[in-house]
């Protein structure tokens, strides 16, 4: 089989399930051609509907059962297809073929999601984000089920129902949706201090990403790599977005919930449709087994991370998302991930959170997807053949021939037969395990605050301010004053000044004790140290008739060559006429556009005769400026910057030398925000 055939294998498999109804005759699900689809079969024109109307029954029965239970967590998701290509052979650490054979391009399916909200909630809520990847490998499906935050709330999976119950809407009134700004969640936080580190991340900018394309992914748990000689290594997985990790402001995130609740979905879909394929590099932190206990934390503690300055991330390869789904329900909603879906060369550790996940994920799929055959749904099927003695059950699609469905047997020559490890059969790592049966937690798990402080120490000034603002908003919504006070006292253990500032903002007493002696920081944790790029950034081009046609065309052509995505906004949608017969197509007007939908603004022409237009534009600019975005202007557009007193402010670009202006604007957009403004 050639490489190209391997690359297309999964897509060809899915193709056999794709159906285009256009131009086809209507039939029942049994293939019977239907002559009428709008009128039920009745006894006379005004009589009762008859039970014998099999088409009516089939149509209504299917409709009645079209909704499956949504996921308890990660209900709101969006997904895309792509491929993974390996940069370097990692056989020193693992025998997994996807990480050792650089000639293979592996099909992938990635589902991004929020954790808290229901399927109908908004995209930009403050929340962790899921980052689940299914690799369709020649050795079977491998699922890397990650989040955009490298740590978790709890250390032991037995507490997972508790933390989810706490952050979900309160059960007596089902309020609030997709938000942790309520008493139950913060009561849980105050009384379960192991979650302090995760809460710091949730209150940071990481919880309101600019885009799925601009957020990191982390495997959270510690896994194992095992090489061909049986040598094992601890491993942490990292997805690194090529565009860098960047965020919205809190005000933008809130406003987008109304202006465009599908903001992240639209962003991902549109980027792929226009060919701006999202790229993520996959890296690993490798720890030798002999070094397991050399850290000041326990590697098996999911509330801790390994600082990248101590164990650098080795970049293994790149994932590129190249195709949107054909059907949201069939693919995005029915895809089933499970951290237990591994291939030879990848194994587990005794991380108690991971151990619980290995049970819980598959248990969840049974009720969501209607029984044990969910692996036969096209999006979940491996590209390699699978053979075993499993039969029957809801939604069985495979038609197994032959009489034998058990092992061992003689009637089928004792097949399907197990495969020896040396021939590719999966073998678990032989870790020595001993001890008493006990319900207890290792003392090495009892440091709850040092890494939370390290995270705080790693933040820039703007990032710290945003964390304080987030705490003040969330705790300010808590009605029970005792819960507010408990949290201030808890986070005094992270940083005393942080807790004192929050206390003043939410009307409780400043903590009387606390503070931390931890001075350690990790620069890799600050988003201001991420790669900066102007590529795929959306620029609002505000223009009206009479603009300088050749000038604007040259600017827009240059920006497009640099990967920016201009969108024309005018008084009305349609053609906008410039000089020298240059026309632009306004796809938005001031009623459909909003500054929070864009990364930067370019003012082309001055005020219009339409006063409502002028007022809208003034508000548009003020908001973009307040959100620290790049603003540029040429010609008559400069008068807007004079009126709003924006001239010579950081990130505000004006230049009579047009090529210089265009280049300076791109460089400014690449900075994401201008926090010193």
Automatic annotation (TrEMBL):
<feature type="binding site">
    <location>
        <position position="357"/>
    </location>
    <ligand>
        <name>heme</name>
    </ligand>
</feature>
<feature type="active site">
    <location>
        <position position="74"/>
    </location>
</feature>
<keyword id="KW-0560">Oxidoreductase</keyword>
<dbReference type="Pfam" id="PF00199">
    <property type="entry name" value="Catalase"/>
</dbReference>
<keyword id="KW-0479">Metal-binding</keyword>
<keyword id="KW-0349">Heme</keyword>
<protein>
    <recommendedName>
        <fullName>Catalase</fullName>
        <ecNumber>1.11.1.6</ecNumber>
    </recommendedName>
</protein>
<dbReference type="InterPro" id="IPR002226">
    <property type="entry name" value="Catalase_haem_BS"/>
</dbReference>
<dbReference type="InterPro" id="IPR020835">
    <property type="entry name" value="Catalase_sf"/>
</dbReference>
<dbReference type="InterPro" id="IPR029062">
    <property type="entry name" value="Class_I_gatase-like"/>
</dbReference>
<dbReference type="GO" id="GO:0020037">
    <property type="term" value="F:heme binding"/>
</dbReference>
<feature type="binding site">
    <location>
        <position position="368"/>
    </location>
    <ligand>
        <name>heme</name>
    </ligand>
</feature>
<keyword id="KW-0376">Hydrogen peroxide</keyword>
<dbReference type="InterPro" id="IPR043156">
    <property type="entry name" value="Catalase_clade2_helical"/>
</dbReference>
<dbReference type="InterPro" id="IPR011614">
    <property type="entry name" value="Catalase_core"/>
</dbReference>
<dbReference type="GO" id="GO:0005829">
    <property type="term" value="C:cytosol"/>
</dbReference>
<keyword id="KW-0575">Peroxidase</keyword>
<feature type="binding site" description="axial binding residue">
    <location>
        <position position="361"/>
    </location>
    <ligand>
        <name>heme</name>
    </ligand>
</feature>
<feature type="binding site">
    <location>
        <position position="71"/>
    </location>
    <ligand>
        <name>heme</name>
    </ligand>
</feature>
<dbReference type="Pfam" id="PF18011">
    <property type="entry name" value="Catalase_C"/>
</dbReference>
<keyword id="KW-0408">Iron</keyword>
<comment type="similarity">
    <text>Belongs to the catalase family. HPII subfamily.</text>
</comment>
<dbReference type="InterPro" id="IPR041399">
    <property type="entry name" value="Catalase_large_C"/>
</dbReference>
<feature type="binding site">
    <location>
        <position position="160"/>
    </location>
    <ligand>
        <name>heme</name>
    </ligand>
</feature>
<dbReference type="InterPro" id="IPR010582">
    <property type="entry name" value="Catalase_immune_responsive"/>
</dbReference>
<dbReference type="InterPro" id="IPR024712">
    <property type="entry name" value="Catalase_clade2"/>
</dbReference>
<dbReference type="GO" id="GO:0004096">
    <property type="term" value="F:catalase activity"/>
</dbReference>
<comment type="function">
    <text>Decomposes hydrogen peroxide into water and oxygen; serves to protect cells from the toxic effects of hydrogen peroxide.</text>
</comment>
<feature type="domain" description="Catalase core">
    <location>
        <begin position="27"/>
        <end position="415"/>
    </location>
</feature>
<feature type="active site">
    <location>
        <position position="147"/>
    </location>
</feature>
<feature type="binding site">
    <location>
        <position position="111"/>
    </location>
    <ligand>
        <name>heme</name>
    </ligand>
</feature>
<dbReference type="GO" id="GO:0042744">
    <property type="term" value="P:hydrogen peroxide catabolic process"/>
</dbReference>
<dbReference type="Pfam" id="PF06628">
    <property type="entry name" value="Catalase-rel"/>
</dbReference>
<dbReference type="InterPro" id="IPR018028">
    <property type="entry name" value="Catalase"/>
</dbReference>
<dbReference type="GO" id="GO:0006979">
    <property type="term" value="P:response to oxidative stress"/>
</dbReference>
<dbReference type="GO" id="GO:0046872">
    <property type="term" value="F:metal ion binding"/>
</dbReference>
<feature type="cross-link" description="3'-histidyl-3-tyrosine (His-Tyr)">
    <location>
        <begin position="338"/>
        <end position="361"/>
    </location>
</feature>
């Amino acid at each position: 089989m050639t490489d190209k055939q391997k690359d297309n294998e999964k897509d060809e498999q899915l193709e056999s399930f794709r159906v285009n109804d256009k131009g086809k005759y209507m039939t029942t699900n049994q293939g019977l051609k239907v002559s009428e689809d709008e009128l039920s079969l009745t006894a006379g024109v005004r009589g009762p509907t008859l039970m014998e109307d099999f088409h009516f029954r089939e149509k209504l029965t299917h409709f009645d059962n079209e909704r499956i239970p949504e996921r308890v967590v990660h209900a709101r998701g969006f997904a895309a297809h792509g491929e993974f290509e390996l940069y370097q052979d990692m056989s020193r650490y693992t025998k997994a073929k996807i990480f050792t054979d650089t000639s293979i391009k592996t099909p992938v399916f990635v589902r991004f999601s929020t954790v808290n909200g229901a399927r109908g909630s908004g995209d930009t809520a403050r929340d962790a984000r899921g980052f689940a990847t299914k690799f369709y490998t020649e050795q079977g499906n491998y699922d890397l089920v990650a989040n955009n935050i490298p740590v978790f709330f709890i250390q032991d999976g037995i507490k997972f129902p508790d933390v989810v119950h706490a952050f979900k809407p309160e059960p007596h009134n089902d309020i609030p949706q997709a938000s942790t700004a309520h008493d139950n969640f913060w009561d849980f936080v105050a009384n379960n201090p192991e979650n302090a580190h995760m809460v710091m991340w949730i209150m940071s900018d990481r919880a309101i990403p600019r885009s799925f394309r601009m957020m990191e992914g982390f495997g959270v748990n510690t896994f194992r790599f095992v090489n061909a000689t049986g040598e094992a290594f601890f491993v942490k997985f990292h997805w690194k977005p090529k565009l860098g990790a960047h965020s919205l402001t809190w005000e933008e995130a809130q406003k987008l919930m109304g202006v465009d609740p599908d903001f992240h979905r639209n962003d991902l879909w549109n980027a792929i449709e226009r060919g701006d394929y999202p790229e993520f590099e996959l890296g690993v932190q490798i720890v030798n087994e002999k070094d397991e206990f050399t850290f000041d934390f326990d590697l098996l503690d999911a509330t801790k991370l390994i600082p990248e300055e101590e164990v650098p991330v080795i970049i293994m390869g790149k994932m590129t998302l190249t195709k949107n789904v054909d059907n949201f329900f069939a693919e995005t909603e029915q895809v089933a991930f499970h951290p237990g879906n591994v291939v030879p060369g990848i194994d587990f550790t005794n991380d108690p959170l991971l151990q619980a996940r290995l049970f819980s994920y598959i248990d969840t799929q049974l009720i969501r997807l209607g029984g044990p055959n969910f692996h036969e749904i096209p999006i979940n099927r491996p590209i390699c053949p699978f053979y075993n003695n499993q039969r029957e059950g809801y939604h069985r699609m495979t038609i197994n021939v032959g009489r034998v469905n058990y092992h061992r047997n003689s009637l089928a020559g004792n097949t399907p037969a197990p495969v020896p490890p040396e021939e590719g059969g999966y073998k678990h790592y032989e870790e020595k395990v001993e001890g008493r049966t006990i319900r207890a937690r290792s003392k090495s798990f009892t440091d709850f605050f040092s890494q939370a402080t390290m995270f705080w120490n790693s933040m820039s000034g703007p990032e710290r301010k945003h964390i304080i603002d987030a705490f003040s908003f969330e705790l300010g919504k808590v009605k029970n004053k005792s819960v507010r006070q408990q949290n201030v006292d808890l986070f005094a253990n992270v940083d005393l000044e942080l807790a004192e500032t929050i206390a003043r903002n939410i009307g409780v007493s400043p903590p009387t004790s606390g503070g931390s002696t931890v001075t350690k920081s990790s620069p890799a944790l600050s988003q201001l140290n991420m790669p900066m790029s102007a590529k795929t950034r959306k620029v609002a081009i505000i223009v009206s008739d009479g603009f300088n046609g050749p000038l604007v065309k040259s600017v827009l052509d240059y920006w497009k060559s640099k990967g920016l995505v201009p969108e024309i906004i005018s008084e009305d949608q349609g053609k906008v006429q410039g000089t020298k017969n240059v026309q632009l197509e306004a796809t938005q007007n001031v009623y459909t556009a909003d500054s929070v939908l864009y990364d930067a603004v370019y003012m082309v022409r001055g005020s219009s005769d339409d006063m409502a237009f002028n007022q809208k534009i003034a508000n548009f600019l003020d908001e973009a400026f307040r959100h620290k975005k790049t603003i540029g202007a040429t010609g008559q557009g400069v008068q807007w910057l004079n009126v709003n007193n924006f001239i010579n402010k950081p990130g505000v670009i004006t230049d009579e030398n047009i090529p210089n202006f265009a280049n300076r604007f791109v460089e400014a957009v690449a900075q994401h925000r201008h926090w010193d403004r």
